[in-house]
Design brief:
The protein is mainly alpha-helical. The protein contains 6 helices and 2 strands; from the N terminus they run ααααβααβ. The longest helix has 21 residues.
């Protein structure tokens, strides 16, 4: 994700993603995020932000994180979602039925594609998503 990519550049202010109630971040039909890259009240951070090289590193980190997110979680109906093979990384709280519904596939096809005997999932496991309607 974006935060893990930014951590590769150096120390980050917060270790976890923060949530805010900004109106621009609440549109349900438009994915959005706000990235604070530095504090200009900190002279060291301000100097780094002035550097073209550092700006490019920050931009690349954000790009890589966003790209990785959308490859792992392609919005339904997009070209990326229609490409195969599709995969889903199991997160805390995920269920097979949620994953099947999210990708528009049947529970049985999801189980078959991944050779699952039951509904138990482990966080971090990668599931192969069958083709739409499968």
């Amino acid at each position: 994700n974006v935060l893990s990519e930014l951590k590769r550049l150096g120390k980050v202010h917060k270790r976890q993603v923060q949530h805010a109630g900004f109106v621009v971040l609440k549109s349900p039909d438009i994915p959005s995020m706000l990235v604070e890259t530095a504090f200009i009240s900190n002279p060291s951070e301000e100097n780094r932000l002035r550097s073209r090289k550092h700006q490019q590193k920050v931009a690349n980190a954000i790009f890589k994180g966003v790209r990785r997110y959308f490859v792992s979680n392609p919005p339904v109906g997009t070209r990326l979602a229609k490409q195969s093979p599709r995969r889903h990384v199991v997160r805390r709280g995920d269920t097979l039925s949620y994953i099947a519904q999210r990708y528009g596939v049947s529970l049985s096809s999801l189980r078959n594609r991944n050779r699952l005997k039951g509904d138990r999932l482990l966080v971090g496991n990668v599931l192969k998503i069958p083709l739409q309607g499968g």
